[in-house]
Specification:
Layout (H helix, E strand, L loop, with lengths): L1 H9 L23 H15 L7 H4 L5 H6 L5 H14 L4 H25 L3 H8 L2 H34 L3 H17 L5 H26 L3 H9 L6 H14 L2 H12 L7 H36 L11 H12 L1 H34 L5 H18 L3 H15 L1 H11 L2 H4 L6 H26 L3
Helix pairs in contact: 5-12, 5-14, 5-18, 6-11, 6-12, 6-13, 6-14, 6-19, 7-8, 7-16, 8-9, 8-16, 8-17, 8-18, 9-16, 9-17, 10-14, 10-16, 12-21, 13-16, 13-19, 15-16, 16-17, 18-21, 19-21
Length: about 450
């Protein structure tokens, strides 16, 4: 909230750009570590027109928030939906991955802009702008989303450990818990350290799938064709397309991204805010492009490894791991499991941060991150103990996320289109139209998926 007051008081003052000293990340300390101070100082140089940074060096201080947010786009839920889409319909739904990623770029750009322009995150705006009953209802929905997200991510990482090392699911769940706590520990060392850890995990997923692509040897002509030519391949394809979209545009990370930018670099000059927004757009484009490429690789590998060999029944993660090894070699199975572990661990940490932002924003309550991590991990550990099918549980968790998606996308479009909130960064008419179309499409497809799933189709 301090960032919002500073912006309101100096919006028209003509002051030179200034920055806040407290990054608004859960658990952040008041005095920035050296790495964070260097990042903020470099950003001030660039935004104020001082310094000698050129090329990529000018962009580097602004990279990070979208990379953290992009983790939600390569989580274990994406493994499940892309595996099913590729094995059952080959390359047919690749265009859905591309379209979903473009939608994600727009949505995450709006989320980042909301934090920059107002100094408040989406949850805080919901609390302030909506009636109390509606705000509390949204909070309950988003807490359920946080639990469903953690369920999928912990299960995914545990399944990866189980496949990679042959340990029991119980032991794999314990390893997941320990590793996630260690990753969250980076949060207390500053936002730059956390961003660095997440970046390494995302990079490891990308490297694993690059190697998978080389081993699989896809038909690149078919890849290029289906990346741009829409087709569903029948009724089943429409359901799978909705599932891919539901696993791509995630509600919890919309709230998180608006929080990651609200206090990371706070500027009080209109021109500096425009420049900061442009750099954040580049951050989003880079991060979402990497996430989109990983998602496309997941579907392509499933298509050319399973579908082209007539193995359309391979639609479970553990099944895919076992089937990959005799087809492409043991290295392919290991890379698949390693990518799953990295995706589960990184998205689990990001999911915990999202839950903390949601709780603080809606009800102004804060609990220690480690306690929230422990509580939200319990449902996943219970599922592991009972022995419920992990892939089926992952898919069901995506249904919960699909149901909640409108409750994040619609308020985001509404708030970023209000000049009274956004000032000079308010959405322009073409952006409002495009964002409204995307919101309507996302809502319609996800409601369709929900209806089909609940109807048992």
């Amino acid at each position: 909230m301090s960032g919002k007051r500073e912006l309101d008081e100096s919006r028209d003052s003509g002051q030179t750009p200034t920055v806040g000293i407290e990054p608004n990340l859960p658990g952040a300390v008041a005095i920035l570590p050296a790495g964070d101070r260097a990042t903020v100082a470099a950003a001030v140089e660039v935004l104020s027109g001082r310094g000698t940074r050129r090329g990529l060096a000018r962009l580097t201080p602004f990279l990070g928030p979208a990379i953290v947010a992009s983790v939600a786009y390569v989580d274990p839920g994406n493994f499940a939906t892309n595996l099913q889409g590729g094995s059952q319909l080959g390359y047919t739904l690749l265009w859905v991955v591309v379209a979903s990623n473009l939608m994600a770029m727009l949505v995450q750009t709006l989320a980042a802009k909301l934090g920059i322009a107002t100094g408040c995150n989406l949850a805080e705006h919901c609390r302030e702008q909506f009636p109390r009953w509606l705000s509390l209802a949204l909070w309950v929905v988003m807490e359920i989303v946080a639990m469903a997200t953690d369920l999928a991510e912990v299960l995914g990482a545990a399944l990866g450990f189980h496949l990679l090392f042959g340990m029991s699911m119980g032991a794999a769940g314990a390893c997941t818990a320990l590793a996630t706590f260690l990753i969250l520990g980076a949060d207390r060392l500053g936002f730059r350290r956390l961003e660095g850890v997440i970046t390494l995990l995302v990079a490891s997923i990308a490297v694993c799938y690059l190697a998978e692509l080389i081993l699989a040897g896809p038909d690149w002509r078919q890849v290029a064709y289906h990346a741009v030519v829409p087709s569903f391949g029948g009724q089943a394809g429409l359901v799978l397309a909705a599932g891919i979209l539901g696993a791509t545009v995630m509600p919890h990370v919309i709230f998180l991204h608006s929080a990651l930018t609200q206090g990371r670099i706070v500027v009080t000059d209109a021109g500096a805010r425009w420049r900061l927004q442009r750099y954040q757009i580049l951050d989003v484009v880079i991060a979402m492009s990497v996430a989109g490429a990983i998602n496309a690789a997941m579907l392509i590998v499933a298509a050319c490894t399973f579908h082209q060999r007539g193995l359309t029944h391979v639609d479970a993660i553990d099944q895919a791991y076992v089937t990959l090894q005799p087809l492409l070699g043991s290295a392919a199975g290991s890379l698949f499991a390693l990518a799953l572990v990295a995706a589960g661990l990184s998205s689990s940490a990001v999911g915990t941060l999202s839950g903390q932002v949601i709780m603080q924003g809606f009800v102004r309550r804060h609990i220690p991150v480690w306690l929230r991590r422990a509580l939200t991990m319990l449902p996943a550990l219970l599922v592991i103990a009972i022995g419920i099918d992990p892939t089926r549980t992952l898919v069901l968790s995506q249904v919960v996320l699909s149901f909640a998606l409108p409750f994040a996308v619609v308020p985001l479009v509404l708030f970023t289109s209000r000049r009274s909130l956004m000032g000079e960064l308010v959405n322009r008419r073409p952006t409002v139209v495009l964002a409204s179309v995307v919101a309507g499409l996302v809502v319609a497809l996800n409601l369709y998926l929900l209806a089909r799933t609940l109807g048992g189709a």
